[in-house]
Design goal:
Layout lengths: L1 E3 L1 H8 L5 H10 L7 H9 L4 H13 L8 H12 L8 H13 L2 E3 L3 H9 L6
Parallel strand pairs: 1-2
Length: 125
Amino acid sequence: MVISDTSIWIEFLKNNEPFFKQMKELLEDREILGIECIFGELFQGVKNKREKEIIESYWNNIPKINEHGLWIEAGKYSYKHKLIDKGIGLIDTLIIITAIKTNSLIWTLDEKLHKKLGAMNYKRK
């Protein structure tokens, strides 16, 4: 599975290559894992009803996991690894925790997150 963060979703929704083609293939193969906070950010940025409907359609049709308790776990993980001091916020920490729990890859354009993931021996898409 692959967790595409908000930055990748935005590139995909703008039809920007190479993101569009790669994301489309992953979506067709049901390899993209949906996380509420990422879609919350996407919904926050919608400009019209059509964009809302598109994002809602993706949210309703991609695989998800039960996120119960993940925010607390993310906060504890952030504390333990001092992620806030490294510029990694709680949403990114939740993405990391979800990737660990699901053995998923994280696909992001966020350089701070790239740096942290490299230190954790995570592969990037």
